[in-house]
Amino acid sequence: MDFSIIADSFDLYLSGTWVTLQLVLQSLAIGLLLAVPLAIAQVYGPAWLRWLVFAYGYFFRGTPLLVQTFLLYYGSGQFEWIQQLQQDWTFLKQAYGYALIAFALNTAAYTVEILRGAIATMPKGELEAAKACGMSTPLMLRRIVLPNAFRRALPAYSNEVIFMLHGSSIASIVTIVDITGAARLVNAKYYRPYEAFVTAGLIYLVLTLLTVWLFRQVEKRWFVHLRPLGSKP
C-alpha cells in the first residue's frame, strides 16, 4: 500500500469533496422546498391532488436513483423541447444540472413521506386548541402544524440526509468529479484501487460523522422542552 499518491492527489480529493457538498446541500434544499407543500397537499388537499402526490412519490421511491439520473442525463435529449431549453439554459448543458434535478426530485419524494407522517400524526388536541383560538388553516399550518412536524420528523430526516450524501456517489457515473469521481481518476492514473477508494470512503465517513453531530446539536436545541427538569444538556 502506498498512500503517498493520495498526498499527490490531495487537491483533487478536496475539489471533489466541495462538489459533493454543493450537490448534496443544493439538492436537499430544493427537495425540502418541494416536499413541504406536497406533504401539506397529501394531508389536506383534495383527492385528485393527493393521488398525484402519491404517484410522484411512488415513482421516485420505487425506482433506483441511478436509473432516474440516467433517464435525465441520457434520455432527456430525445425531446425537442428539452433540446430548446439546453440551448437557452447553460445549466442544462452540464451533467451537474441533471444530477441536481434527479437528486432533488428523489430526496423530495422521501421527505414528503417523512413530513406527511409527522403532519398526519399531529395530536388532535393541539389542532382543536388552535381552531378554538380562531386560527385560520394557513396560520395554524405555519405556527402549529409545521413547527411541530419539523421537530418530530428531524430524526428520520437526518437519515435521509445521510442516504443522500452516500447516494451522491452516483454523480461520478455521469462524469461529475465528486469524491467518488476523484477516487476513480486516481485509480485510473495510478492503478491503486485500494488506496484511492479507501480514501474516498474515509472522507464519506468523516462527512457522515459531522452530519450526525450537527443533527444531534439541533435535536438538543429543539427537544430541550422534553428534557427532565434539572438534567444536564
TrEMBL record:
Domain ABC transmembrane type-1: 17-215
Molecular functions per Gene Ontology: transmembrane transporter activity
Bilayer topology: Multi-pass membrane protein
Name this protein carries in UniProt: Arginine ABC transporter permease protein ArtM
GO biological process: amino acid transport
InterPro entries named in the record: AA_ABC_transptr_permease_3TM, ArtM/GltK/GlnP/TcyL/YhdX-like, MetI-like, MetI-like_sf
Location(s), subcellular: Cell inner membrane; Cell membrane
Source organism of this protein record: Plasticicumulans lactativorans
Membrane-crossing segments per the record: 20-41, 53-75, 95-115, 161-184, 196-215
One CC-aspect GO term: ATP-binding cassette (ABC) transporter complex
Similarity section: Belongs to the binding-protein-dependent transport system permease family. HisMQ subfamily.
UniProt key word Transmembrane helix: yes
Main location: membrane
A Pfam family reported for this protein in Swiss-Prot or TrEMBL: BPD_transp_1
PROSITE patterns assigned: ABC_TM1
Keyword Metal-binding: no
Alphabetical UniProt keywords: Amino-acid transport, Cell inner membrane, Cell membrane, Membrane, Transmembrane, Transmembrane helix, Transport
